[in-house]
C-alpha cells in the first residue's frame, strides 16, 4: 500500500479536474469555491486505501472516492446554513460569501453530482451502500437538530446521533473500497465496523477541538458548539454531572441571550474542565479508537497494510486540526 499522501494527491487531482459548467455561474462557482478549500479528504483516501489493501485496483475506486467526497461536502454546505457558521476551513462559508438560497441549491447540485460519480462504478452494491448511508446521515442531522430543543439527551442518544451523522460515511468509504476490490463479506463488514468506530473517535475529537482547538489549524471559529448550545458529548456530560452552583452557572450560560461570545465560551469551558467532561471525552475517544483497531486486525490483509490503517486511526483520534 502506498503512503497516505500518494492517495491524497490522486484524490486532489481528480477533484481539481471535475468539469463544472460555466453557467449559471451562481450555481457552480460556489461548488468550485467550496471544493477548492481542500480539507483532510480522509473519506476518499480511505476508499482508495481499502481497495488497494484488499487486492483491488485503485483506479476502479476513484470515481466512488470523488463521489463520497462530493457528498460529504454537500452536507457541509447545508450544515453551515443550519448552524449559521461563518467560517469553513479558514474561509467564509458559501452561505456567507453568497447567500443561504445559493448554498442550498449548490448543495443540492453537489448531491446529484456525487450520485453520478457513484453510479460510474457500475456496482449496485456500492450504490445501495451509498444510498443507505445518505439516509442515515440525514437521520443523524435531524436528531442533532431535535436535540437542540431537549435538555434530557443521554450519552447513548448522542453517540447514536454522531454514528449516523458522521461515522457511517467513514465506514461507507472503507466498505466501498472493499466491495470494489471484491473482498469477502466478512472483510467488507469488518472494515466497515472499523470505519464506524474510527468515525466516533473522530467526531468526539472534533467536539473537543471546537472548545480547546487552535482556530488557525482547526479552520473554524472556536466555541461554535457552545454558542449554539449544541448537545455535544461535553455538554451532555456537564449537564449530567453539574450540581449546586455549577448547575446554576451552566443554566445561566445556556439561557442568557445577552451573554457575549467570549464570556460564554470561557465560562462553559471552565465548567467542562471543572466537571471532568474533558477527561470523559478523552476516555471515550480511546475506547472507540481501540474498537477500530481491533476491527482492522480482523480484516485479512498484510501486516503492513493493517498497520497503515491502525496508524491512521491513531493519528485521527489524536489530531489537532
Write the layout of secondary structure elements.
Elements: H1 4-16, H2 25-35, H3 42-53, H4 62-83, E1 87-88, E2 91-92, H5 94-97, H6 100-119, H7 124-147, H8 155-180, H9 185-212, H10 215-218, H11 224-227, H12 233-241, H13 244-255, H14 261-275, H15 277-298, H16 303-317
Antiparallel strand pairs: 1-2
Radius of gyration: 20 Å
Q: Please identify which CATH superfamily we are dealing with.
A: Farnesyl Diphosphate Synthase
CATH architecture call: Orthogonal Bundle
Structural class: mainly alpha
Task: Going across the biggest sheet, name each strand in turn.
Answer: 1-2
Count of helical stretches: 16
Specify the overall morphology. Answer: globular
Q: How many beta strands in the DSSP annotation?
A: 2
* Oligomer designation: single chain
Report the sheet with the most strands, covering strand number, pairing sense and barrel closure.
Answer: 2 strands, antiparallel
Descriptive overview:
By secondary structure, the chain is mainly alpha-helical. The protein has one domain (about 5-315): Farnesyl Diphosphate Synthase. The protein contains 16 helices and 2 strands. It has helices at about 5-15, 25-35, 40-55, 60-85, 95, 100-120, 125-145, 155-180, 185-210, 215-220, 225, 235-240, 245-255, 260-275, 275-300, 305-315; strands at about 85-90, 90. Strands 1-2 form a two-stranded antiparallel sheet. β1 (about 85-90) and β2 (about 90) form a beta hairpin. It is globular, with a radius of gyration of 20 Å. The mean pLDDT is about 95.
Amino acid at each position: 500500500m502506498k503512503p497516505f499522501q500518494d492517495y491524497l494527491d490522486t484524490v486532489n487531482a481528480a477533484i481539481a479536474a471535475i468539469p463544472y459548467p460555466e453557467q449559471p455561474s451562481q450555481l457552480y462557482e460556489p461548488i468550485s469555491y467550496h471544493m477548492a478549500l481542500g480539507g483532510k479528504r480522509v473519506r476518499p483516501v480511505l476508499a482508495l486505501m481499502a481497495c488497494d489493501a484488499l487486492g483491488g485496483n485503485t483506479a476502479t475506486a476513484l470515481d466512488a472516492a470523488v463521489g463520497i467526497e462530493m457528498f460529504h461536502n454537500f452536507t457541509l454546505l447545508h450544515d453551515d446554513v443550519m448552524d449559521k457558521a461563518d467560517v469553513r476551513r479558514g474561509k467564509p462559508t458559501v452561505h456567507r460569501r453568497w447567500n443561504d438560497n445559493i448554498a442550498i441549491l449548490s448543495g443540492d447540485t453537489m448531491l446529484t453530482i456525487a450520485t453520478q460519480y457513484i453510479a460510474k462504478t457500475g456496482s449496485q452494491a456500492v450504490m445501495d451502500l451509498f444510498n443507505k448511508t445518505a439516509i442515515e446521515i440525514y437521520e443523524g442531522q435531524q436528531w442533532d437538530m431535535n436535540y437542540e430543543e431537549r435538555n434530557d439527551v443521554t450519552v447513548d442518544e448522542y453517540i447514536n446521533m454522531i454514528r449516523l451523522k458522521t461515522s457511517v460515511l467513514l465506514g461507507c468509504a472503507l466498505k466501498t473500497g472493499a466491495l470494489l476490490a471484491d473482498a469477502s463479506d466478512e472483510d467488507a463488514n469488518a472494515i466497515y465496523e472499523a470505519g464506524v468506530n474510527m468515525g466516533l473517535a473522530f467526531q468526539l475529537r472534533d467536539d473537543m477541538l471546537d472548545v480547546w482547538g487552535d482556530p488557525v489549524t482547526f479552520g473554524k471559529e472556536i466555541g461554535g458548539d457552545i454558542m449554539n448550545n449544541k448537545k455535544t458529548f461535553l455538554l451532555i456530560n456537564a449537564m449530567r454531572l453539574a450540581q449546586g452552583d455549577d448547575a446554576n452557572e451552566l443554566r445561566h450560560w445556556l439561557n442568557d441571550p445577552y451573554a457575549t461570545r467570549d464570556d460564554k465560551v470561557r465560562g462553559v469551558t471552565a465548567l467542562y474542565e471543572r466537571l471532568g467532561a474533558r477527561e470523559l471525552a478523552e476516555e471515550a475517544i480511546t475506547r472507540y479508537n481501540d474498537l477500530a483497531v481491533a476491527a482492522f486486525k480482523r480484516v485479512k490483509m498484510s501486516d503492513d497494510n493493517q498497520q497503515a490503517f491502525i496508524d491512521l486511526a491513531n493519528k485521527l483520534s489524536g489530531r489537532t486540526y
